[in-house]
Design brief:
Beta Polymerase, domain 2, 3 domains, 5-stranded mixed β-sheet, 17 helices, 46% helix
């Protein structure tokens, strides 16, 4: 995506279509899954359907071999785009843009569960759950949910066994369901944990004893490991090894990190656009983080205030050697962030980046040689998308007096020349209203995420 300013101002790709209402999306999703022959159930938080989603995401249980069909069905829904995709040991996560779950929200995270397990050791038979699903209607919407007992056990163990905590949001309903079905609940749990431990767990739920519940966690995990060893001495250790291998790939692979650099001579404008973008991009990735300009690193002393601008003096700037050392430290830190632990898909919004070392060195208090800054700059990991906010977009036209001139225009031209050498870039007219610029930046980011995810899904399926 290389959009020059004059080409992009009226480009269709910078005009996002209205997001689908949540109820309309749900109807399309369930119809698409049924058309693909996917057996599914909504695990929890469906009480507000079709108008409201009571959770932060949407959890779907599907057959262990039906993930390709489910993704194909999801991709077939008109008006939405998958902007993030990540496979985990127990299933997959898709981040879908174009769904209005609440005012201002345009994306939805959908979790596809292929198994109900801890370290790939099943604690509930997923196939049995899907065989016992029950239909549910919400207005004209028709879908499937687990039987009450399976739903209660899943809501309890998903956080207790995996996270080592009791999720209070679900506990009253879990307690009520198990109180009316204690015998059935104990029978289901005893298949994996044994009757004694299952009875102990049920009694703790009925008594509302959180400490006793937490005291069952170690015994439950040990029971899963021992039972897997009984069924095969290699299957249990292999499953655990596969779990950690997949977790390592997800958390330490650069492929789970998307980066966008928003640059321009006016740092304040960059920061404003990023702050406006962050809530708009909610659920377009698991984590959306603003990465501020690294104006100083440890060897240079304390940070510079946010009010620093391109024309601010290099007050307190360090010597050339220290500046060069800081540039190297910055380089190491950026590469480390590419592989540092991440949670699923992470989106970084950079408020400017390494180019300021040689375009606008005063801004980051760099006073070393330009050749060294350019050399280090070539070694930096490049963002997936560069967005230039050009405050002098119509410089070739008669300019109002408030537009910049002189030295500032020369710096703007330097930013233009730099960004045009980047493979994925777009230049936006920053003289337009902030809301308009924000919308165009959002559209460009979504377009980039959707393209990258589409390539990933084509390679995967």
């Amino acid at each position: 995506m290389q959009m020059e300013l004059q080409e992009s101002m009226n480009a269709p790709s910078l005009r996002q279509p209205p997001a689908l209402p949540f109820g309309e999306f749900l109807a399309s999703l369930f119809q698409a899954l049924e058309a693909e022959g996917v057996r599914y159930c909504v695990l929890r938080n469906y009480e507000g359907f079709p108008e409201n989603n009571n959770g932060n995401d949407m959890d779907l249980m599907i057959g262990s071999t039906q993930l390709p069909l489910a993704i194909r069905g999801l991709r077939s829904i008109p008006g939405i785009r998958i902007v993030g995709y990540c496979e985990l040991p127990a299933g997959a996560i898709a981040y879908v843009e174009g769904v209005s779950v609440a005012p201002g929200v345009r994306s939805l995270q959908i979790d596809f569960f292929l198994s109900l397990s801890w370290k790939k050791l099943p604690y509930l038979p997923a196939g049995k759950m899907l065989q016992t699903v029950i239909p549910r209607n919400a207005g004209a919407l028709h879908f499937f949910v687990p039987s009450p007992v399976y739903e209660a056990i899943t809501s309890l163990l998903a956080t207790l066994l995996i996270g080592g905590r009791v999720k209070e949001k679900y506990f009253p309903r879990v307690q009520q369901t198990i109180a009316g079905n204690s015998t059935e609940t104990a029978a289901i749990l005893s298949r994996q944990f044994g009757r004694k431990l299952a009875t102990r767990l049920v009694d703790a739920v009925l008594a509302g004893d959180r400490l006793k519940l937490l005291g069952c966690v170690t015994a439950m995990r040990a029971s899963l490991i021992l039972r897997s060893l009984q069924h095969g001495p290699f299957r249990g250790p292999l499953s655990i090894a596969q779990y950690y291998a997949r977790e390592f790939i997800v958390r330490f692979s650069p492929k789970t990190l998307e980066t966008v650099c928003i640059l321009g001579p006016d740092g304040g404008c960059n920061a404003t656009i990023i702050e406006n973008l962050r809530p708009m991009l909610e659920s377009a990735a698991k984590v959306v983080e603003k990465i501020p300009l690294r104006q100083r690193l440890p060897l240079a002393g304390g940070p510079i205030g946010n009010a620093a601008r391109a024309d601010s003096p290099a007050e307190g700037s360090s010597g050339a050697f220290t500046s060069m050392a800081n540039a190297v430290l910055w380089l190491v830190a950026e590469w480390r962030s590419k592989f540092a632990e991440k949670v699923n898909i992470t989106l970084h919004l950079h408020e400017s980046y390494y180019h300021d070392l040689f375009i606008n060195p005063k801004r980051c208090r760099y006073c070393g040689p330009r050749w060294f800054a350019r050399l280090v700059g070539k070694l930096f990991p490049s963002p997936d998308l560069w967005i230039l906010l050009d405050p002098a977009a119509d410089a070739l036209q008669p300019r109002p007096p408030e537009l910049p001139s002189g030295e500032t225009l020369r710096k703007i031209e330097a930013y233009r020349s730099f960004v045009k050498t980047r493979k994925e870039h777009i230049i936006l007219d920053a003289s337009k209203p902030v809301t308009s610029v924000t919308e165009e930046a959002y559209a460009a980011i979504i377009h980039m995420l959707a393209q990258r995810t589409d390539r990933k899904l084509k390679n995967r399926f």
